[in-house]
Write a structure and sequence with these properties.
globular, 4-stranded parallel β-sheet, 41% helix, single chain, alpha/beta, two-stranded antiparallel ribbon, binds adenosine-3'-5'-diphosphate, Rossmann fold, 284 residues, 13 helices
Length: 284
């Protein structure tokens, strides 16, 4: 059943989002031991979560194979997720798609470790279109053309990609923030996992690293019911419409966007990203 967005401070959200995000922003206490995954939706969030969880267990897959990903690293912006986070022992693992201005303020004076994953926004559009067809907790696009227009206007869950990325990128250079891209993970997953484990302060043996790598491949995650979203309740997702672990590749947008869409996107991208230094992203 299609639904509409929940609007908070001019930003559209899923209907399952905590309505009082301002209280969360002002009241939630981030701890120095926390490990937080942040992203704009469809950027590879669940891939990073899996990597972080497996680094924590030093490659032992029993946790990722027995507990669903949204309980291992819950969403802070949902009531159920927040409840789980509040029950976690240190180090707590949690996830968010919140834009910087709505995230709990205590983060900015804490030493919590934050990993922000970015992805070529053109691929974010394609992945988002397919995913948002399935979601029952948000507005559903009737076509890629429609979703493309919404995306450019920021009328998609969690708002404008440009504002989200631009907002969080203000934190670059802080030593407790790691920015990593989906494309970088694809290009060299071994080096990426090593970089993440170093950032988290966990030294992995060669065998442990191999085990992490084995369990975070697209196929391993697709086959793992704890990570492939097949166990998301039917009230949230129409599983018949698309699969969460869809293609898992970089550059699919080239096969899906028309030339006119691609040109229109480039124009908006150049305008919106003009203030950022060139060469910041692997897709540029
Ligand atoms: P596609 O729809 O392009 O396949 P998020 O977790 O932020 O919602 O992102 C979902 C996207 O990440 C999907 O992209 C999904 O297939 C991809 N993904 C998840 N795990 C992956 C993995 N292990 N390897 C490659 N891509 C992965």
């Amino acid at each position: 059943m299609a639904t509409d967005y929940l609007w908070i401070e001019g930003i559209p959200f899923h209907t399952t989002t905590i309505r009082d995000l301002r209280s969360l922003r002002d009241g939630f206490v981030v701890r120095d031991e926390d490990v937080i995954t942040l992203s704009y939706p469809k950027s590879g969030t669940n891939w990073i979560k899996e990597i972080i969880n497996l680094i924590h267990t030093r490659g032992d897959p029993s946790w990722v194979q027995s507990v669903v990903s949204w309980e291992r690293s819950p969403w802070i912006e949902t009531p159920e997720g927040l409840e789980l986070i509040e029950k976690q022992k240190d180090p707590r693992f949690y996830t968010s798609h919140l834009p910087v201005q709505l995230f709990p303020k205590s983060l900015f004076t804490s030493k919590a470790k934050v990993i922000y994953i970015l992805r070529n926004p053109r691929d974010v559009i394609i992945s988002g279109y397919h995913f948002h067809k399935t979601l029952k907790i948000t507005r559903n696009p009737s076509s890629l053309e429609e979703y493309f227009e919404w995306f450019l206007r920021g009328h998609v869950p969690f708002g404008s990609w440009f504002d989200h990325v631009g907002g969080w990128l203000q934190m670059r250079g802080k030593e407790n923030f790691l920015f990593i891209s989906y494309e970088e993970l694809h290009q060299d997953i071994r080096a990426s996992v090593e970089k993440i484990s170093q950032f988290l302060g966990t030294k992995l043996s060669p065998e442990q690293l191999d085990s992490v790598l084995k369990n975070v491949t697209f196929q391993a995650m697709k086959d793992n019911n704890m990570s492939n979203f097949s166990l998301v309740p039917d009230i949230h997702i129409d599983h018949s419409k698309a699969c969460f672990m869809r293609k898992g590749i970089a550059g699919d947008w080239k096969n899906q966007l028309t030339e006119a869409q691609s040109e229109a996107f480039d124009k908006v991208y150049q305008e919106k990203m003009a203030g950022l230094p060139p060469g910041l992203f692997p897709w540029e």
